[in-house]
Amino acid sequence: MPWSVQAGIAAAFLGLVLLLPGAAAEPPADAFCVITIQPLDDFRIVRVVVDQETNLTQREELFPVVDADGDGAIIPREKDQFRHATAQVHPDTTSLGVKDIRLDSLEAQSQPPIRALHAATWREVGHTFHQRNYTTPPIIMAPVDLETQEVREFRFAWEQPAGTLDRVMLVGGNQSMPPMPRPTPTAQPVIEYVVIRAPQGWRVQEVSGSSYDGPFFQRHDAQVVDVPAFDTKLPYTILFQRAPDIPTVHTVTVTKTVTKGSPDPSTGNPPATSPGPAPALVAALALAAASLRRRE
In which element (H, E) is residue 214 found? Predict the structure, then answer.
């Protein structure tokens, strides 16, 4: 068979492979349940945002609930109404079960981690497209685009003054259950892709917990850490440490106030001013005057 014919057959086969569904394609943007853990306000607030995995049937059922006026378009005002309608306050955060978290300053080893004063939870329209150049459209016209998140916001009170903490350990998951390998499920599991964001001026140092293959321990030194296949229902800890101080450059602005005389009555213009004597000339005149006084 001539070489040109062989090349043509190879090119046609390659084109067919590239057209096959799923060939060398990345997973869809919503294939992961992204969980974002982000302390705020010097660890007085910890916010956890969890993507909710819903199928098309569930989104079709939810669409008329969020679309309050029934015009077929979910606008930002209706998203806000949905968020407020689903908000709940939890005075006792233990009611959240494995979703509860605690914090430990690691300064007093004999004291257990502190619990939050209270927590607030709500659902909102959105999805975390981590490291992807895509965002949820501001106006949703079809149920397929109606993705939701669960937000959990914990508020803590520290005995230490603000700005004095150097290390904080976040403790979560079911602490009564030791980390252990999980059996291989028969169905496709929801992959929990956890994104840990340290507060400004802090770094993520250590992460320990369980993946779908068993326990793990990781060391880091970064403000944002990604942990794929992280099972946050089992016990886990995240160690944050304050970053070394960075010298700050201060800019000083000097303001010079100039007092002007009265305007010229004949013209109404400010009086003409002449530049003052140069500093060198002033110094020379002062020296001459001192010399004359010594001769006298």
Answer: strand 214-222
Which neighbouring-strand residues pair with 20?
Answer: none
**pLDDT of amino acid 12:** 40
**Nearest Cα to 211, choosing from 173, 257, 253?**
173
Tokens read off for 62: 């939810």
- Quickly count: other Cβ atoms within 10 Å of residue 103's Cβ: 23
- Please name the residue that has the structure tokens 């981590």: 130
- Runs of H (alpha helix) within 107-259: none
The partner residues of 50 in beta bridges, in order of sequence, read 35, 150
**pLDDT-based confidence at residue 163 (cuts at 50, 70, 90):** confident
Average pLDDT of the residues of the chain: 76
Q: Where are the domains of the chain?
A: 33-242
Crossing angle of helices 56-66 and 76-85, in 10° steps, is: 100
pTM value? 0.68
Give 204's strand partners.
222, 240
Question: Of 225, 233, 192, 196, which is closest to residue 39 (Cα–Cα)?
Answer: 196
* The length of the chain, given as a count of residues: 296
Torsion of Cα atoms, 56 then 147 then 231 then 208, to 10°: 160
The two tokens of residue 63 are 């669409």
